[in-house]
Amino acid sequence: MAAFSMDEYYRGESVNAYKYFGAHPVSEDESGIIFRVYAPAAWQIEVIGEFNGWNGQNHKMNKPCAGVFELCVPEARVGQLYKFRVYQQGGNVVDKADPYAFRSQLRPDTASVITRVSNSYKFHDAKWLKERTKCYDKPMNIYEMHMGSWKKPYGKTEADGGAQWFRYDEVAEELVNYVKDNNFTHIEVMPLAEYPFDGSWGYQVSQYYSATSRYGTPEQLMKFVDVCHKNGIGVIIDFAFVHFVKDNYSLGNFDGTPFYEYPPSDVNQSQWGSYNFNLSRGEVQSYLMSCAAFWLDTYHFDGIRMDAINNGIYWMGDKNRGVNDRSVDFFKKMNCRLNKEFKNIMLIAEDSSDYPNVTKPVEEGGLGFDYKWDMGWMNDTLEYMKVDPLWRKGSHNKINWSMAYFYYERFILPLSHDEVVHGKATIVQKMWGGDYHNKFAQVRTLYAYMMTHPGKKLNFMGNELAMFREWDETKELDWFLLKEYDMHRMFHEFFRELNGLVKNNPAFYEKDYDPEGFLWIDADNANENMFAYYRITDGQKYAVVLNMSPVTREHFRMGVHYPCTLTEVLNTDDTRFGGTGVLNKDKIKSEPICHNQWYHSVEITLPPFGACIFEVKEDPRPKTAEEKKAEESKKTAKSKK
Fold first, then answer.
1. CA-to-CA distance for 161 and 170, rounded, in angstroms?
2. Choosing from 194, 307, 476, 510, which is the catalytic residue?
3. Integer Cα distance of 509 and 451 in angstroms
4. Are 545 and 614 spatial neighbours (Cβ–Cβ below 8 Å)?
5. Does pLDDT of 430 surpass 50?
C-alpha cells in the first residue's frame, strides 16, 4: 500500500487515510501520541483526555495544511481516553469522538481510546490469504451470525458486573467447529463497527474504524479471524456505507457544517432516521474507502457485504428520483481500488433494485461488485411457500422465474436476519398451514430447492434449527430445541447432510454462473405443483425433483436427457429427517418412453411436500456423426504433429 497523500485524500482517491489521521504512537514504547483530524470549517480544535484532565487549554492543535489539525502530546499513552474539542463555525463548542479512532468506549460512554493496531497481533494465515479465491467456481455456503446472540454467558449481566456477551476470541473455537460440522464455508458477521444502540444491530454506526467494545479488543477480533482461517473458514464483515448515526458526539455537523452528510435537504436523512453520507465529497469518499481497506488490512477479513446499496444507487433508494451518479462513481472507484490492494477479496452488494450490471467489472460498464443478494428470489420463494397448495399453480412462476434472469448477475441466495424479525415470522413458520409436520416437510423441501439452485447461499443463524421464535438480539439461539424436540434435531441433521452433499459435489457449485450448469427438466408442471431440473458439471450430473403438493405421486414419469440410471442420494421425506419414509430405494433405469420433449424417461415416487435428489449416471451411447468427425480430426492433427 502506497504512502498517504493529502492530494489523493482531497480527490477521494485515498485507501490509507487511517494511517495518517487518528491517534498514533510516535515510539515503540507507546509513549507520546500524535493526533490528527480533518475539520475544514472548524476555527480551532483542542485535544482533551485523561492525559490532561479533559482540559485542552494547553493542547490546541496546529494546522499543517488545509483542513488538517495536528498535535503531538508526549504525555499521552496507549489505553487512555480522548476526544477532540471542536470550536465550530457559528460559535458552538462540541466534544467529538475521533472519526478514525481504532477503539471506542462502550455505550453509553462515547470517548475514543488510544490504540495501537498495527502489529498488535501476530497472524498465522499467510497461506490462507495467498490461496483464497472469490469462490466463483468453489462452494460458498455462508453462515450469517450476530456476534452477541449466537450464544450467551449464563447467569451474568452487566448489572451484577458480569459479561453480557462472550468475547470475540471466546466464541471463536466453538463457533468454528460448529460451522465446519454443519458444512458451511464462510461466516458473515453482522456489523462490528462501534454503534450506540443495541437494537440497530450495528447498521447505524458511530465510529467506523472502531471494532465494537461489546465483544472485546481489536486483538481479540484479530484472533477470531485468525482461528477461522486456521480452520479453513472465510470471514465476511457486514457494513453500512451509506448512512450513519445522528448522535452529537459522532460525525454529524462535525466542524459546524454538514461535512460528512448532505446539507439540510430532502436527501439529508435516510428512512432509518440517520444521516446519509455525502458521497460527492472527495474527503468523504476517502474516509469510507480507507475504512473498507482498514478492515480488510488490519483484521484480514475476506470480504465486505455492503448494506443498502440501492440507497446509494438511487436518491433515497427511490428509482423514480433517478440515479445518484456521484454515489455510483464512488462504488466503482472503491471496488477497483480495493481489488487492486487486496488479493481475491469478495465485495458483496445488498441491493434490492433492478439496476443493471452490479456484478460486472467496472471496465465492462459495471459497478465492480463480485456478488449481489438475490432479493427477488428470496421474496418470490417465501411468498410461494405461504400459498395454500390448492392455489399454488397460480403462483407457479414465482419459482421458475428466478432462472429467467439469474445469469445477468452473480447472485447469492439469502435467507437472512431480515426475514426472521419484526413480526415477519421465522422461515419454518412462514410455511403454509398450521400442521407441525407439514410445516417441517415444506421447509425441508424449501432448503433442498435453495441449496441445489444455482448461486452461492446464505442462511442466518437459527435457520438450521428451524426455530419458531423470531430472532432477538438480547437472547441466544434456542439451542434447547436440539435436546428436547426430535423434529428440530432431525431437521438439523437434514440441514447438515444437505449442506455436505452440495459442498462435496462440484455439480452443485462449479458452474453456478455458467448456463451449462443448470437445465430444466420440467419447469411448467403447475397443475401438480412440481419442478424438476439438472445440476451439471464435467463428469457429474444430478437431478432434483420438487413436489410442492401434499399428495404422494407414485409411478410419476419424468423425462431424462439420455439413457441413464438414477440413484437417490437424498430424500427430504426420509424418516431420519422426520419424514414419512416415501423413498426411492432402488436404482432406477430409464426407459425409451417419450415424456414431454424427452425421448427417455424414468418412473419415480414423489413424497408429499417432498424433494428427491438423484445422482444421474448416463449409459454409454453411440457417437453422433459430428462427434465421430471431431474425433477423427483430433487424431489427424495429432499424427501430423
1. 18
2. 307
3. 10
4. yes
5. yes
- Contact (Cβ atoms closer than 8 angstroms) between residue 275 and residue 259: no
Active site residue 484: no
- Examine the residue annotation and report whether 350 is marked as an active-site residue of this protein: yes
- Dist CA 143 CA 364 (whole Å): 31
Distance of CA 170 to the CA centre of its chain: 22
Active-site hit among 170, 194, 283, 350: 350
How does the average pLDDT of the chain come out, rounded?
95
Give the pLDDT confidence of 58-103 residue by residue, as tens digits: 999 999 999 999 999 999 999 999 999 999 988 899 999 999 999 9
Residues 6+ apart with CB under 8 A from 30: 77, 78, 116
Dump the DSSP string for 332-391: HHHHHHHHHHSTT-EEEE---S--S-TTS-GGGTS---SEEE-HHHHHHHHHHHHS-GGG
Contact 348, 370 (CB under 8 A): yes
What distance in Å separates the CA atoms of residue 541 and residue 520, rounded to the nearest whole number?
Answer: 13
How buried is 531 (Cβ within 10 angstroms: 0-12 exposed, 13-18 middle, 19+ buried)?
Answer: buried
Kindly report the pTM of this predicted structure.
0.94
Question: Which pLDDT tens digit goes with each residue over 327-355?
Answer: 999 999 999 999 999 999 999 999 999 99
Cα–Cα distances (Å) from 292 to 97, 100, 227, 449, in that order, read 20, 12, 21, 34
Output the pLDDT for position 160. Answer: 45
Cβ–Cβ < 8 Å for 279, 324: yes
- Please give the single-letter amino acid code of residue 587: K
